[in-house]
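Handout, tutorial session.
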Amino acid sequence: MSAGDVKHPENTPETLYVISGQTLGYVLEKAKEHFGVDDVSDLAIDSENIQIRNFGYDLYDGADWCQYLVITR
């Protein structure tokens, strides 16, 4: 991977990453699809700032990071 490549976090069976800025309806629908559930009350939703580009550089640049909603069960 070169320094300028974008690497978004990968979903796992227990974790779903949704880029922030989406509507609540969209987030809940994606969570239902990902986890195969109709009731989302057992899921936890947190916010996380994740680096997605320019790995290996020691100079902070806010454009290299992206805010995600992290949904887990």
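The second record follows below. Compare its token runs with those of the first.
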Amino acid sequence: MIPREDSYDVADLRPIAVAVSRLLGCAVLTSVVFDSDLVECWVYRDGERVHRYMSEVGAAVEWFEDDDGEFKASFDGVVIADGEPVPQRPLGVDAAAFTSFVDGTPDTEQIEAALRGAEDRLPAELQHRVIIESLGLPPEALTLGARHVDLRRFPAAHVCAVSR
């Protein structure tokens, strides 16, 4: 499926994943790359998100100035306590969460290595490709932004939008 993007060139894949996983009773994997810094993947089953992966939590930390003029960091809406380090690691490195997307016998060591990422930190687009390849999935179909997809290359694709 190829989602329609909004005016900011963004497609929210989560409603599509919820609907497809619920209707078809299968696992659905979605992923997004943010500004070459972060790969985020979600796994859905039966309409529910069952797993979340982030390649670099630190890239998703938000900074704000509190009422006292102090700068604070938060992650997922939770303020990081003073003196606590800002997380700089992957989240959800769990090959088992991804094995249902592998055709054949999964190589869990290869999947975990792809999720952990290279020690010299790859750009998110490249790490996304490595993750998709570790699952044995076709990266040329699954690592393109929807606006870059040439439908002639993927004749079986369905362009869709989710009504809210």
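Points raised in discussion: Strands lie at 2-3, 28-34, 38-45, 48-54, 62-65, 71-75, 78-79, 159-160.
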